[in-house]
Amino acid sequence: MKIDIHTHIIPKDLPDLKKKYGYGGFISLEHHKPCCARMMIDDKFFREIEDNCWDAEVRMHDCDKHGVGLQVLSTIPVMFSYWAKAEDALDLSRYLNDHIAEIVAKYPDRFAGLGTIPMQNPDMAARELERCMEIGLSGVQIGSHVVEDWNLGSIALFPVYETAAKLGASIFVHPWDMAGQERMKRYWLPWLIGMPTETALAICSFIFGGVFEKLPTLRVAFAHGGGAFPGLIGRIEHGFESRPDLVAIHNNVNPRDYLGKFYFDSLVHDPFALEYLIKLVGEDKVCMGSDYPFPLGEHEPGKLIESMGFNADIKAKLLYRNAWEWLGREGE
To answer: Is residue 60 part of a domain?
Structure first.
């Protein structure tokens, strides 16, 4: 049994969003040959995708090949559209969420779903989170920040987190719109360096903004093994202790005290990194995640976990039990 908490999906067909909303910047799909499509932002190429990005039966075939019993579906982060008008981002979110909910309803034993919500308007986001739970999703995926100067610890976002805690909704935090891209033109550095930095920023924002302190029942998982955060915890703690006047202005609890109170996926691509992560946060807080179906993901989901010398109980936790708890289904 394996549960993959980190996979992405998109509808095969998207409406003409530029025409619908009256301005550009949105994704469109060009199905230029069988089983393939180009993701375009206006006239600019973004990414080539294949039918495993939209076809549930293709996904299930891949899952069967690698022993994955359940995929947790979430949209591709470029679809967040936090930069757009809130009412348009809400409309797009509903379209994407209904698509995921349809797949979950059709194949409930193979898929769980996470919605997307218009975080630029927390009230709208909270209401759409409520609707996500009503239509059978397990929670939401959110980006590592909302806009350039609005990180996840902002007090304005607490209505979203309070709603998630009240409803028992899972939250998956994924990096997007990486800072500093103007200095990372080559070598795929926004994905290699920018994404881990974004995730560390998101975790610190949750901690220092007091989200975990005020909402201890919130179930949050962070992508890519927490990005740079696990390697920086010593520096972060030292900064907290040496300059509390700069660091502890909204929460005076040592950041290390929160280790073991939120989840990470296992997508670190390195056995030493995975072993360190488990020692740092505990064997109960790491869940298998592959980033299916993208190139930076683990192409054989769970292979790293299975290749290491963990005992059967720890392997079971990493491969599915922890994910079941994060999804709020441990009693099922």
So the answer is: no
